[in-house]
Specification:
This protein has five domains: about 1-60, no CATH class; about 75-205 and about 445-450, 2-Layer Sandwich (Alpha-Beta Plaits); about 210-345, no CATH class; about 350-420, Gyrase A, domain 2 (2-Layer Sandwich); about 455-625, Multidrug efflux transporter AcrB transmembrane domain (Multidrug efflux transporter AcrB transmembrane fold, Up-down Bundle). It is α+β, with helices and mostly antiparallel strands. Strands 6, 7, 8, 9 and 10 form a five-stranded antiparallel β-sheet that branches. A hairpin with a 6-residue loop joins strand 12 and strand 13. The protein contains 19 helices and 18 strands.
């Protein structure tokens, strides 16, 4: 009797918890229908604003749909391990550069491990790896092992950093897995702003604080480059010629007018020889305070010049020229990018950042990101700022200068600000990448697919139809073949589906198309367990036993067979989840939940239904067909 009460209580608790877990999903659906029912967009917006908290809460706790049902982005990203290995090298020379270029070219055409391509290229050149990597006494195999460990660590770190960025962005149930030695597979359901996500994932978040060289050094350097270009008549790289049909460049920087050498019409780079005595100053202007800048339409051309090895050789030792991340507006409204001559070696890196927060500046208009540093960073920052009062320090993120403030005084508390940000949304994205940390190496998107909501709606409709038809066919069969016993099986089947969906919703797991296939398979398995039990009961009834005795012995004798089949299915589903990726894992999750629920409903639920019917004399031998 006590066991019976416990079973009834357990069934009631499971049913109520399942309904409670699915209530936000129903509420989210109802609120969405309510919003869509309004005739005008203004009424819909008014209702959404007045019920904002309720809508957000329901949406947060509702059953999530996977990429194939909801729509979103599917990305394949590749960690640039060639760049990673270049960072680990020392004593670099022209030979090393040529080898790495060959490795990069081979890696672009092959899916082989980059470390294997690197080793093959060094052996082809008959050069030991220790010439450029680690200790000169290390063997090639020892260096390969170390680089291989760096490669594995970089892939794992990149995966976790990307996951952190996506989690802070707010994507529900992203799927992030590694493939091979350098690829990361990412599925982001429900993403609509694809450009923002793309930029968020690609940025390495390499933050550096670098000292600027003096304005007179900048002017001398630009003069040297200008003279070199004029004397050698070097044409620009293909595809970098600025648009000659562009509008006037007679805009001015906010600090000083452009020099007379800057053209007032389109910018055109020389083809085979220089057509002007000032080829650099045709695209670069210098203000009275020594600040250099270029117009937006010539930005790519200037960048291509700065990347050239012959131009870099003209720069003062341990320096490089970088462009501003964001443009300033000239008096005529044209966008102008500042150019900075900074030291190559950073005074401090972003590894010391412990907190970042997007906010507005003191005037409450311009977005900025406030940063806090750890103890080590605070100590170094105090020393750096104290030793460079009156000088400018550039805040460089991923090779672009966000701001270059003048050090007014020593900063002892480790706080800094990144400004020059256009919008609060961009500031929040910058906050995310700084919090998540810098990627160990650049990553690039090698494959991208978008699933539209209309395609997702078609999949949802097809999946629901398949589920409905499966349930209908099985229910009708059980009713026709097993009469009243079939009703108990159908009730257990409804509870089984309810449990599966509620568990997915309760743990914020997403339901995908393979997940629906898992539910359909679960329906068949649940009925299969009932069939085993009912056939045992019919065998007992055929031997002349009473209904109560037949039911009791039927369940007892079928239990071992049902348990064996469910355990083997659970084992197979667990292996699918462990070694599968993406859709396979979605199928495995629903199959595991459904199998566990099937065992509960077949053994406990239907048995208690029979006991209730028997207690009221509502069952006989004919109740089992």
């Amino acid at each position: 009797m006590k066991n019976k009460r416990f079973n009834l209580l357990l069934i009631a608790v499971v049913t109520l918890v399942s309904l409670w877990s699915l209530w936000p999903t129903w509420r989210d659906y109802s609120l969405t229908r309510q919003i869509d029912s309004f005739g005008s967009a203004q009424d819909s917006l008014k209702y959404a604003l007045s019920h904002r908290e309720e809508i957000e809460d329901a949406r947060k706790k509702s059953l999530k749909l996977g990429l194939d049902l909801r729509g979103g982005m599917h990305l394949v990203m590749e960690v640039d391990q060639v760049d990673l290995f270049e960072q680990k090298a020392w004593n670099k020379d022209a030979k090393f550069t040529a080898i790495m270029q060959a490795v990069r070219a081979n890696a672009a055409k092959s899916d082989e491990r980059v470390i294997d391509l690197l080793l093959a290229e060094f052996r082809r050149e008959n050069i030991r790896l220790s010439r450029y990597f680690y200790d000169i006494r290390n063997s090639d195999q020892e260096i390969v092992s170390k680089l291989e460990k760096e490669s594995v660590d970089a892939l794992g770190r990149a995966k976790e950093i990307i996951r952190n960025r996506i989690d802070q962005y707010g994507v529900a149930e992203p799927v992030i897995t590694t493939q091979g030695s350098r690829k990361i597979i990412i599925e982001l359901p429900g993403v609509s702003d694809e450009n923002r996500v793309r930029n968020l994932l690609k940025g390495t978040a390499k933050l550096e604080f670098r000292l600027l060289r003096e304005p007179e050094v900048m002017v001398r350097t630009l003069d040297r480059i200008n003279s070199y270009l004029a004397q050698n008549s070097i044409p620009p790289q293909e595809g970098t010629v600025p648009d000659s049909t562009s509008t006037s460049t007679s805009a001015t920087a906010t600090s000083a007018p452009l020099p007379p050498s800057l053209p007032t019409s389109g910018l055109a780079a020389p083809a085979n020889k220089s057509t002007t005595a000032n080829p650099l100053y045709d695209v670069v202007g210098i203000s009275q305070n020594g600040t250099a800048y270029t117009a937006e339409r010539s930005r790519e051309y200037v960048l291509s010049l700065l990347r050239r090895s012959d131009i870099q050789a003209l720069l003062p030792m341990d320096t490089e020229l970088l462009l501003a991340a964001k443009p300033d507006l000239g008096k005529a409204g044209e966008k102008l990018y500042s150019i900075y001559l900074v030291k190559k070696g950073p005074e401090l890196t972003g590894g010391v950042i412990t907190e970042a927060k997007a906010t507005f500046g003191s005037e409450g208009v311009q977005p900025e990101v406030m940063m806090s540093m750890n103890t080590e960073g605070t100590s170094k920052w105090a020393r750096i700022t104290g030793a460079n009062i009156g000088k400018r320090i550039a805040i460089v993120l991923d090779g672009a200068v966000y701001s270059a403030p003048v050090v007014q005084s020593k900063i002892p508390n480790g706080n800094s600000v990144i400004n020059g940000i256009e919008s609060l949304e961009e500031a929040k994205d910058l906050e995310i990448v700084l919090k998540a940390g810098a990627l160990p190496a650049p990553v690039r998107i090698t494959e991208e697919r978008s699933v539209g909501p209309s395609l997702g709606a078609d999949y949802i409709r097809a999946g629901i139809q398949s589920l409905a038809w499966a349930f209908f066919a099985v229910s009708v069969f059980m009713l026709v073949y097993y009469k009243k016993a079939g009703i108990a099986a159908d009730i257990a089947l409804v509870l089984n589906i309810l449990i599966v969906l509620s568990v997915l919703a309760g743990f914020n797991a997403s339901l995908s198309l393979p997940g629906i296939a898992g539910i359909v398979l679960t329906i068949g398995m649940a009925v299969d367990a009932n069939v085993l039990i009912y056939e045992r009961i019919r065998e007992e009834l055929a031997e002349g036993k009473g209904v109560l005795t037949a039911v009791t012995q039927g369940y007892d004798r079928a239990f071992s067979s049902i348990l064996d089949s469910h355990v083997t299915t659970l084992s197979a589903a667990f292996l699918l989840y462990t070694y599968g990726i993406g859709p396979i894992q979605g199928f495995a999750v629903t199959l595991m939940i459904g199998t566990s629920a099937s065992l509960f409903t077949a053994i406990v639920v239907t048995r208690e239904i029979f006991h209730l019917l028997l207690a009221k004399n509502l069952m006989s031998e004919k109740s089992f067909g």
